[in-house]
Amino acid sequence: MIGGLLDTVLNLTVFAYLAFLGWLAVHPYRDP
Amino acid sequence: MTASPLLVVALTISAAVAIWGIADPEGLGALAQTIVSVQFDSRGWLIMLEASAFLFCAIYLAVSPYGSVRLGPDDAQPEFSTPAWIAMLFAAGMGVGLLFYGTAEPLTHLDTLSGFENPPIAAGQALFVTYLNWGFHAWAIYGVVGLVIAYFGFRRGRPLLLSTPLRDAVGDVAWTRALGWVFDLLAIVAIAVGLAGSLAMGVFQVQTGLAGLIGVESPDVLTYPVFAAICLAFAIPLRRDLGEGMARLSNLAMLIAIALMAYLLIIGPTGYLMNGIVSGFGRYVFGVLPAGFATAEFFDRGIVDWFQGWTLNYMIWWLAWSPFVGVFIARISRGRTIREFLIGVIVAPTLFSILWFGVFGGLGFYDAFQGEGTLAEVNRASLDATTFALLERFPFAWLSQAATILAAFLFVVTSVVSAGFVLAMFATGGDENPSAGIRTIWGGVLGALGLAMVLVGDVALVRSVIALSAIAFVFVAPVLLVCLLRSLVYEERR
What we know:
Order of helices and strands of chain B: HHHHHHHHHHHHHHHHHHHH
Distance between the termini of chain A: 47 Å
Radius of gyration of chain A: 14 Å
Order of helices and strands of chain A: H
Shape of chain B: globular
Number of helices of chain A: 1
Largest sheet of chain A: none
Distance between the termini of chain B: 40 Å
Structural class of chain B: mainly alpha
Strand content of chain B: under 5%
Number of strands of chain B: 0
Number of helices of chain B: 20
Largest interface: A-B, 14 and 17 residues
Largest sheet of chain B: none
Oligomer: heterodimer
Strand content of chain A: under 5%
Helix content of chain A: over 70%
């Protein structure tokens, strides 16, 4: 049960990560 | 000596893993195996997707107009001649792994796949899988990470660190600094544990060979003497700056390995081996792109375990090593164009792997199909012993076995010395000449981690520990790639 929940959370993290990569690709550059 | 927070945290984590491994090697090995198995079951697709994405991006960058971007200022010239550069790339790709797995891996795949196919067809597939594990995908991972390091280091003039791309390509703001710091830390841990695993494999290989050579019944009694000899051998060069000497030793090891391969090809069944190499090459080159997406999804547990234990494990392994090999290939490639860099880094070592496994694997198959099949039995009992059992069948076995032991020893020592250097560089914010003190501390940590891995004892468990340390890196490498693509587009628009 807990293992299954953890796995679901990790899967969601992976999809969130893939979304982050997409965002990073189009995120405008900020000159510091 | 600067004690940056990164250095302190990285040393603490590495030392903690080492102490845990020394105190409870079985516990560490078993835990790593459980976690890695769950990760591979649930997220194996991500690893294969990533390896393929790296290969496709590398092909795109090599053929697109970005290929003519130079890794350095526009007027930079390569530091080394092309033949010398390719020889150094071979050296990066060679290592104790090839000596260890040359015959053992194709024979193990043959064993597994013979349960599903006629043995002759299974042999072709076994060689194909070995090529897949050691070929274009591995070198695309190394190549792209090396390209990122070289581009930001030499073209953009930033420190040779993994935090650099994010800070340079996205902007030097709080979150990129924080995430970059984590990237540097993960890279350090992955390199340290990965190298320690390779050290342990070197110990297993050398002790088994030495035991056969000097007639010791059980190789285990040699474990600690061999381990101590390796530690002594890398301690001295780490204290002193022996860059040139180390390069020479690494070249010597490479020459021994190449001589060994040429000797076996000539003195062995040359026609049989060349047939295998040519047909294996064709099958690989025309089948590699779809095979890179394989996930063994509809097979039973036996095949899934085999696929995870080999192909997925290798892809993770290449990721774990990519910052280390990436720094090495970046440093020798300043002034080359992206196209030259990617073609050289990906094609040349892959062709070498094809030849190497074609010869060593082919000899294993020759024994299985035309000989008595005793090599497969040795391989089932212990992967460490396969290479030596193979050499035993040819003239001058004593000499070739001693040469193999020497090459394995030199590969391990030179890798640990360069890893100590790269770790010290990463942990000091990209200092290209880290002090001997910090290099020595990292040498000590690598030694302790290596001891932990030796105590874990089993090659499969050692591979799981390496995979565990590198899993986080699965999430780092694509970010680096996106940063590179962003910067290339940005540079073009400017």
